[in-house]
Write a structure and sequence with these properties.
- The chain is of the alpha+beta class.
- 44% of the residues lie in helices and 19% in strands.
- It has four helices and four strands, in the order αααββββα.
- It has helices at residues 8-20, 23-32, 35-57, 116-130, and strands at residues 72-73, 76-84, 88-95, 103-109.
- Helix 1 (8-20) packs across helix 3.
- The longest helix is centred in the middle third of the chain and has 23 residues, at 35-57.
Length: 138
């Protein structure tokens, strides 16, 4: 049986609204969504929570984590180093869970950048980048 197409804009809008809700209100919001939209939003939420865990776990005590090709971060597998800068390093990665084909950039930040204000700025940057769709933008 063919799977019905889901409008990515509808999924993104529902996901962004969900992020603004308290944990207590999220279940009620999800219950109101059509099943296919709900499934996609729940998958994004799991990925978001996994990214948060990954962000906290990948920083080594000695400074920046040196990722290597083939290393996995959540559902992503590192394929190349894109560049290094003052905040850390950016790696190219491929989604490796068999669900969808996707190339992403993973930014690994140094421990010194994990104070609450810098972490919030990093989250905002991640949210902005997630909404951009252009081949020359991360």
């Amino acid at each position: 049986m063919a799977r019905e197409a889901v409008d990515p804009a509808e999924v993104r809008g529902a996901f962004l609204k969900l992020l603004d809700l308290s944990a207590a209100d999220r279940d009620a919001f999800l219950e109101q969504l059509p099943p296919q939209i709900r499934n996609e939003v729940e998958a994004l939420l799991a990925s978001e929570q996994g990214a948060e865990t990954m962000l906290r776990g990948i920083v080594s005590g000695a400074g920046i984590h040196q990722a290597v090709s083939g290393e996995k971060f959540g559902v992503f597998r590192i394929t190349a180093l894109v560049g290094r800068g003052g905040m850390g390093a950016v790696y190219q990665a491929e989604r490796d869970d068999g669900e969808i084909s996707q190339t992403v950039a993973i930014k690994v930040i140094e421990r010194g950048w994990l104070d609450p204000r810098a972490l919030e700025r990093f989250r905002q940057e991640r949210q902005i980048l997630a909404g951009l769709m252009h081949p020359n933008i991360a």
